Amino acid sequence: MVELKSIYRTIIEIFKELKRHKIGIIGFTLLMIEIGLIIFFPIVADADAIKYWNSDLKYFEKNPRFAPPIWASYLFPWERPPTTYIEPDVIREDYDFNKFEGDDGYYAYYVKSLQGKWYIEINGTKYDIADPNFVREYFWPADKQRYSKVTIVKVIYTYNFYHGSSPIDVIFSLRLNLPSFNGDSKSSGKYFIGIYVHRPDGITLSLIPGSKYPDNIYKLEPYDFKRSDMRSDLIQDLLNIKPDGKFTLSLHVYAISKLEMLGETKYQENFVQQVIQPLLNAANITETGRWGTIPLVEMIFSKAEPGLLELRAGKLNGKYVFEFLFVFMFEQGKENYEVNIEADKAAFAGGWGLMGTDAFGRDLWTGIVYGIRWALLLGVVVALITNLTGTLYGVTSAYFGGKVDMVMQQIYRIYVSIPSFPILIMLSWSMGSSLWLLMSLMIIFNLTGPQYTVRSMALQIREQTYVEAARALGASHARILLRYIYPQVAPYLFASIALSVPGYILTEAGLSFLGLGDPTIVTWGKILEEAANRGAFAYGAWWWILFPGLAIVITSLAFIMFGQAIERIIEPRLRTR
Q1: What is the pLDDT of residues 96-138, one digit of tens each?
Q2: If one looks up domain 2-61+379-574 in CATH, what number appears?
Q3: Burial class (CB in 10 A: 0-12, 13-18, 19+), 128
Q4: Could you tell me which residues come within 8 angstroms of residue 279 by beta carbon, excluding any fewer than 6 positions away?
Q5: What is the pTM (predicted TM-score) of this model?
């Protein structure tokens, strides 16, 4: 117990002296901040995101992909605008033709007369009409069609865009509760879905090619309800409509980037060209050449002018209206079926979070803060064990001297000549990627730790008179080593542990960067490996590379500064008893 008390007093004295060394204070403060982030992780980050980090990427589909940090949107004018969330306007109109039948076989709908003027009242709002027979133009005749009810729902998002760069993506979240619409005898009826962008310059783009925005939504003939064409299949894929026509998800996330991916990869190579054809016509662009990989969202927010396809056209600022148009036609006897469409806020995605997002929309701040615990755990545990074993090895070698010292030092020379990193690569590749296995291998290859320095110190200490006195009084070798020699080199052990932690953190990061890290654990090296493999350089996602690299550098510097301060504090003690 005496030697433990001595070590405890040494630790207290080191921390008392630490306040005199600015470099040590900085390093200690950085380490305390990291420990605080570990403790308060559920508060400062999204703890649930870690559960799905590698297992269920759908958790992140509402986040923008490749989004820069939100502060970069304000500091750098060429970066994306900050992410903006827009509340929707949901307009719903229901028409039950069975309740209002005209004399000539057409279904009229609530046509009223007021002071000689005809109007139609929809959800309490009056719309003037010039001719009471307008129903003949707007609704299908009863003797030719089997539908008794029409429901029209419009979901509208209004986005005021004033920035030099377009958003990365536009992400919508819809809750759909609908009956089956399949067009056969077992279905409820037919449906039409259109997705449109009304631009400030008056041009309307249909994000579903072929679905031209209707001149009058109450005129049903222009709607094409066929389900066999590309447009219908695309709508089914986009909104996850099953083959029987059922909408099965309670919450569905729709993004322009997802529509673009579906259109280009599954349906038509010129999908984007069809969407932006009105812009090409307005800009008098007839020769498109070989269609490149121009993001659709970039052109939605660009001016209709030459240079559009080369992204040389300026951004069109003003009010953009994004509209989902749903038209449902119910068959006779199915008019009691309910249609329920709810919409959450839409994310006009740009700068997002403190450190941006990766290719899957995962918040890098959450991943990097969570990675602190694994960096400190691996670095400190491996450094602690290897320094303890190395110190004991060096002290034992120096104390016994002679042939024992010669044999132990020869073993040490052979041991340190082994190329540990290449062997770690081969073993990690052949034995599997596990953080615990990696820690075990790193301990095995660094068992001798700081023995060379400790041995030189112990060679001097063993000649001290108090060691000779203990030997003369018959003290055992173990008692002399643990009671009189080991406590004298223990202060150096603290500095050695702190100074060796960065090497082990970098080793893990290097192996993870090579794809040999633990795939189930979020570490800084794993984040860097994914950045390299998922196109961070190609997309200009500098934040995806910078922040995990900075985390490694800052943690390493913190331990180095802390270790150097301890080394300066204990150096006078190493020369005396």
Answers
A1: 665 544 444 334 444 444 455 555 555 455 555 555 454 444 4
A2: 1.10.3720
A3: exposed
A4: 203, 205, 299, 302, 304, 308
A5: 0.76
